[in-house]
Amino acid sequence: MSMVKNTVWLALVLLVQWGLLQDLPLTVYGNPYLYLWFFLWLPFGVTRIGLYAIAFGVGSVMDAFEQSGGAHTLACLTLVTVKPWVENALIGYRKSDDNEGVSHLALAPYLTTSAVLVLLHHTVLFTAENYGFGNPLLLFVRILVSSLITLILLAITHALFSKKYAA
Amino acid sequence: MRQLILFLAKYRSTLLLIVFVLIALLRHSLKNPVAEHRLNNVGFGTIASVHNGLSGWKQYWRLEAINEELARENAALRSGGTRASANHFSNSTDYDFIPARVVDYSYTKRNNYIIVHAGRRDGIQPGMGAMTPDGWVGSVVEVSDAYAHIIPVLHSKGNIGARIPEKGLGELRWDGSDPSWATLIDIQRENRPLPGDSVYSFTRTSVGPSTLTGTIVSAVQNSEDLTWTAKVALSADFKNMNWLYISKLKDVAQLDSLQIPAL
Question: Do the beta carbons of residue A72 and residue A66 sit within 8 Å?
Fold first, then answer.
């Protein structure tokens, strides 16, 4: 049941990313990537192998859509690799059979955790897309602006879908 | 053997991660050259048709812009104004111009792309040029039956030769920030580019006709080799891509026959 639910959420998140956000003329310094919400929504109980497989799948779909080689896959794999450590450091110990994820937390811990993860994901993504650290100032601005917009959108999504958890 | 199985079982998640990262790195490194690798083209047609489905309703949002563009083009054609001027690419009789609807495009990345709904069955081949009525856009790198993938000037490998009439050639490149500006480099020291000078694309004949690409805004001279580097305002609006023309050389067979090396 939860597998079906997860798949439906994933499809919805990708549809919103592609149907609404991709062409949004917000800024020339990078798109917001709201699809990261799916990783924040995933329950703490998902195994490492499961996380890697999901990250590889989601990243590959994004790469195919964005014609970006393997940049999204690399960024997503980095995100899920460090996600348990960041969660442990910022939120503390969670039960392994826990059915809730980062998005089920109150706004403050949700935002701090997502800020770290989003910044990390965007750093890997834009550096890979840039094929290195050429033009570092522009790369830095791109990472920062894009992360900021993604975070604002993540906060709005939290307010919409995790109302009872919002502080 | 038992040790090996135990090892694999113990570190299965780490090994899986390593395999995934290696696959991603391989895919990413093969993406770099302009000639795309087969690995990255798997499912290009499928992805393009999903884009097409999504762009169907996105097009509604852009109807106003498309309408305005058409009205402007129509008015210019009727008045015989600048668009019908001798230099406009559409006056070239050596090419057919295949109209193509844009289904997806980007302008916020370091390496941008454009996908159009016209492909092999419309006569499009890799290497052909793409332009809007306003100016040069890029060239086709990959085609499926119904779709084509274009690398625009806004790409780290999208540099083209460019020419200022009577002032010689240079190379047009994009620095990766604003999609409205590009840089023209290597203009000979005796040909100082002046603000307002038009810049035309200068590609192989099989790619496309010489097409207006932008206008010089300012120029500075390099202290070392005394060549000029100019800032160019691109004339095509890369933020609003609706329809493109793909240029197809009419006598391409004749050109090909000349290019066969003598035995």
Answer: yes
Which CATH architecture group holds B38-155+239-249?
Answer: Beta Barrel (2.40)
CA distances (Å), B190 to each of B168, B187, B227, in order?
10, 8, 8
Q: What is the pLDDT of residues B201-249, one digit of tens each?
A: 988 888 888 888 899 999 898 888 888 999 999 999 888 888 889 998 8
- Tell me what ipTM this predicted complex has: 0.83
Q: CATH code for B160-234?
A: 2.40.10.350
Task: Tell me whether A53 touches chain B (CB under 8 Å).
Answer: yes
Instruction: Please give the Cα distance from A149 to A98 (Å, whole number).
Output: 30
What stretches of A27-135 show up as alpha helix (H) in DSSP?
37-41, 48-66, 71-90, 107-129
The structural domains of chain B, with segments of one domain joined by +, span: 38-155+239-249, 160-234
- In Å, how far is B89's CA from the nearest CA of chain A? 29
CA of A27: which chain B residue's CA is closest? B108
Q: Is B107 on the interface with A (CB under 8 A)?
A: yes
C-alpha B47/C-alpha A137 separation (Å) is: 33
Top residue of A17, A28, A48, A85 to mutate, by most chain B CBs within 10 Å, is A28
Judge whether B210 and B221 are in contact, CB under 8 Å.
no
Choose among A22, A49, A126: nearest Cβ to B12: A49
CB contact under 8 A, A138 and B239: no
Q: What is the pTM of this model?
A: 0.78
Residue B104, helix vs strand vs coil: strand
Mean pLDDT value across chain B = 82
- Alpha carbons B213 and B236: distance in angstroms, whole number: 7
Other C-beta atoms lying within 10 Å of the C-beta of residue B208: 30
Q: How far apart are CA B248 and CA B130, in angstroms?
A: 10
